[in-house]
Amino acid sequence: MFKSKISRRVVGSFLLLTVVSMALLGGYLLQFFYGEHMAQQTSELRRTAGVVEVLLQDVLLQDDDKQTAAAGTLSEKLQDITAQTGMRLTLIQADGTVLADSSEPASEMENHLERPEIQGALGQQEQDTAMRWSQTLSENMLYVAVPVYDEAGELRGIIRSSLPLRPIEDSYAHTRNAILLALIFTALLAVLAGLILAGRQIRPIRQMTEDAFCIIHGDLNKRLEIYTGDELEILAHTINQLTYKLSGKIREVTTAANERALILEHMDNGVLLLDAQGRIRLANRRAQAIFALRETDIGQSSIQALGSAQLSTAAREAAQSGEPQSFVLSCTVQQVKKTFSVFLAPFAEAERQQVLCVFHDISLLQELASRQAEFVSNAAHELATPLTSISGFAETLLEDDFSSPEQSRKFLAIIHREAQRMNRLVSELLQLARLDRQDYQQQIAVECMDCTGLPALVRQRLLPQVTEKKQQFLIAAEDVPACIEANPDLVLQILINLAENAIKYTPEGGTITISCRTEADMVCFSVRDTGIGIAPENLPRIFERFYRVDKARAGGGSGLGLSLVQFLVKLFDGSISVESQLRVGTEFILHFPRVA
Ligand code: ADP
Hints:
Layout: H1 5-55, H2 57-60, H3 64-69, H4 71-85, E1 88-93, E2 98-101, H5 116-121, E3 129-134, E4 139-149, E5 155-164, H6 166-216, H7 231-265, E6 270-275, E7 280-283, H8 285-290, H9 302-306, H10 310-321, E8 325-333, E9 336-349, E10 352-361, H11 363-399, H12 405-436, H13 438-443, E11 447-450, H14 454-468, E12 472-477, E13 483-486, H15 488-504, E14 511-519, E15 522-529, H16 561-571, E16 575-581, E17 585-593
Parallel strand pairs: 12-14
Antiparallel strand pairs: 1-2, 1-5, 3-4, 4-5, 6-7, 6-10, 8-9, 9-10, 11-13, 14-15, 15-17, 16-17
Helix pairs in contact: 1-6, 6-7, 11-12, 12-16, 14-15, 15-16
């Protein structure tokens, strides 16, 4: 209970108030009663002295000698009065000599002139009363001295009455103890009352604190239920309203933040947030994937993560200028060269400069552009060769006098062959260009076709060339149907292209084998020859456009055949692979998804 500051404060205040007021009141009462008691005793003593003066007037008004002579009688009378009143009585002569005393023989008592009460009675001091330790009676006494004057106004003696102070002191101590006891009791009551009162105040505050803690820890549906009808209830109501508004605001902010995070996470562009020093503060999912960022890269320099200082430098410049910037970043990510168009937007948050970097991957665009340029230059080059040949022989013929019809025929044959080559090249280029177009691809009629008869068809078409080169053309096809979803003309073109190459790159007397078989859910074609083969270092490039291993031995080939084949195979969801050994032979293997 005393752990609570409020309890301590309330109980402390109660205690202080009670003890101070009780102490003040008790002290005042104690002094009041003591004073009253003393005044009462003093007046009693004075009255008794007056009675003694009246009783012993005859003796007291006589001269000193007569007084001394009557001293014995006086002592007896004083003792009689003392027996009645309990007071000690002393008669003192004007010179201070003790004439008679009710307690002691006067002869043994010293001169009393200097005693304060005597001096007071003689007008030498203000007070004719005194309190002091009596050597004679060995106790504290209260003295009152009253002077006795004769008719002529001459001092004849002094009557001193006295009482022991012990009863007064006893009464004082008694009263003081009673007050102290009352004070302790009241203090205990104050503590108890303070505790009860503080407990009543603390209970709703504790409840409020617990509920407020729940709210702080995220339970924004919690409401304070305090019905004390005082300021605490108003406070609880205010906190409830505050929580309600806060939860609304938090919901709004969270929704907005979630939306932004969602957009950021699912953006196709990589987004990095850098500080002015080029350190990564945040990376969206795309940026993490592009740059293969790990958790540990957050907070690290972008130079380390991207392997390029370009971004960090640009970010620093943008942060300094405060202006958005953009530049093209080329870097190697996971051993792949990439090109990004980077947009930098600097902004300040909480007095910290930050730069938002948006990465647009333009690697494909760049590659396409360079491929296009390469394609155009290759095509121009391929067309230039036969054109040069044609124009050269045509010129020679123009200047010729046709004296040798044999030679003229030979020149015309070359012109015809080169023109055919150009024709073939242009038609291949046109076909490639057409196939590149999405709409054309969609127009290609696809049907479920049985491939078992294709090898025989290919042989039939190419028989003249095979016979010319004295080659063997073997075919192997299973009896079971091997159906694929494709365009029959284009599949035939694929196989003819491969078989033509096989014939072309196989010396006279060689063998070409073309087969069709089914493999689980695949239809597999193979075009194998016993020709010159392809060196391993050239194998990865043979499907590139215009690529020829040996231009001199290509026999007028354009280098477009295999790229066209690969394109068509992929068009029908197939795959193509090649195995070759120099001077042993080459085998092209095709796989298409089987439909029946
Ligand atoms: P080309 O019209 O020159 O034959 P291709 O694209 O059809 O062009 O072939 C590319 C290159 O691959 C050829 O120049 C040739 O060197 C090589 N090649 C293709 N088929 C074979 C094969 N069966 N045997 C050996 N080399 C081949």
